[in-house]
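Each letter names a residue; the fold follows as C-alpha cells. Both lines appear below:
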Amino acid sequence: MLKVESIQLADSIDIKLFKTSFTGEIYRADSDELFYRMGTEKYLYVFKYGIVTFLGYTKEEIKAFIQLVSSFCKNLLDQRPSDEFDIETNAAKIKLGYNKIEIAEPDIEILRLIMLNVSQSVALDHYSQQTNKLLEETNYHTQVLEKKGKLYIRGINLKKFIGRTLNLKNRIAENLYIFDSPEETWENETLNLLDMELKKTFDLQIRFRTIQDGLQIVKENLELFKDLLQYRKTVVLETIIIILILVEVINLFIGKIF
C-alpha cells in the first residue's frame, strides 16, 4: 500500500530558488512545478502555488521537509488544507474507489498523475475557503444595505476588497489545470482515461465551477457597491456646489443691500 499526502503550506513557493538549494533526482521540472524521484516508490512534488505532495514518506519525514521548505514559502498558512489518498498495486486493472485507487504496477507517470490530481483537489479546498470568506463579507454588507439602506464601507476598503477578489481569481486561473490534461496524457490512452477518472473522483470540475460562481457573485455585488459609493459621492459634490452657489447669491444680495 502506497500513500499520497498533499498539503497546502502557503500562498506560493519560490520553486526556482528551492530547485537550486535542494538535492534530489529531478524527474520533471518547469516554471510551475518540480517532481522528484527520491527513492524506490518514494516521490516528492512541489508546486509554485504553495502545495507539496508526498508519496512513500513517513510522518516524520514529511514534518522535516516542511521545516526545510518553509523558508522558500510566501505567506505561510496557519490552517493548512490537506488530503490523503491510498494506492494499491498488483491489481488486475485500474480501479478507483473512495479515497483509494488500485493499479497494476507503480508506473512513475501513473503515480505522478495521481499526485497531481490530489494536489489540485487540495488547492481547490484552499481557494474554496478563501471564496467563502469573500462571500461572507459580501453578504454582511448586503444585509446591512437591506436593513439600513446604507453602505458602511469606505472607498479605500472597497478597493482593497476588489483587489482581494481579483487576486484570488487570477491565482486560480494561473495555478489550476482543471480543464487541461497534462501533455503526457495526449498520446497515452491509459493515462488519459486515468486523468479523466481522477477528475471525476475528486469532483474537480464541479468544485472549480462552484468557486467561479461564488467569485462571480462577489464581483457583481462589488460592482453594485462601487456604483452606490460613486452615486453617494456625486450627491455630496452636487450638494456642495449648491451650497456654494447659495452662499455666492447671498453675498451678492447682501452686497446690493448694504
Summary: The chain has two domains: 2-107, 121-229. The chain has six helices and ten strands. The longest helix spans residues 204-257.
